[in-house]
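Recall that a protein's primary structure is simply its ordered list of amino acids. Everything else, from secondary elements to tertiary packing, is in principle encoded there. The following example makes that idea concrete.
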Amino acid sequence: MSFEGQVYRAGYYPRGERAHVVQVGLGDNRTFLHELVGQPGEVSVNIKWLLSACSGYWNQRELRGIAVEPVRKHFEDAESLLRQGRFANVSLVQVALGQWDGTVPLWRVEAAAPEALAAMSVAQREHYDWDMSYLRNMSCVGDISSHLEYFHSRLVDKAEVAVPLRKDTVQLWSWRRLAREMGFHGCEVLVLDTEGCDVEILRSMAYHCWWRPDERPWLIQFESNGLSNERGGGSDESAVVAELEDLGYMLVGKSKTDTHLVLREKAVEGSPLHRWMQTWRCSYCGRTECYPYLDEPYSCCSNCRERPSRW
């Protein structure tokens, strides 16, 4: 049965309400669904940390969430968690997000054939399992990224097995269409992990929120490991931070993998969001609230970063 170009949804969302969390790019881990269901080995400490910035959610009955995933298999896994957790106010949708509405190619890696897996040596199977743990979550929208090509080629060479690279066609939605179709009016936490599409999604969100500023997310985490820069052919990840600062955001911290921004007007003292901001602490001087922090490899506040190196 073909799923190409079709939009699949699951769950229920109370239209007109602000979401506690919108997560785009689920893969097979790091989701708020895993966190609340509490499956051993699948709960991400990072997601739990981000959810601590939310106000008023405690369990599957109270959390309001939107989950977006273009890969059918990951969508089905998330749907299973949705049923298992009996979430009352969470909705899933199988689409890709970008700056416009339409259709777009989706590249993904499939598992090797069962007979090929059975014929592998122990060493080959170890290489296969290790690389597939990444490749399963490395689908890309539009053109194939050099990142995906490299890891796919490395897996084929090391494991000496044919690993299919598939091209599907999926629906592409802008942020405005996502908000309209799913019925949410803004969110408290926005989590992006889309293998290079994060900047395009953020710009789509910013355009929508320029017209509807009350729908701006309060906390944003996006992937900033260079994939969006490669996709855009420039320094898009730094540029979008400046664009979001013009929209009222403050850069809180940046690591080799992720960037975090907070909407200034919502960082009210004593709020869950403000308490979350205070979890950032300098590994050198111990100071909190000295933004932005650079986490490479240890968390360093803006003051210590500007001093001559003494460590």
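The CA atoms of residues 96 and 203 lie 15 Å apart. The chain has a mean pLDDT of 90.
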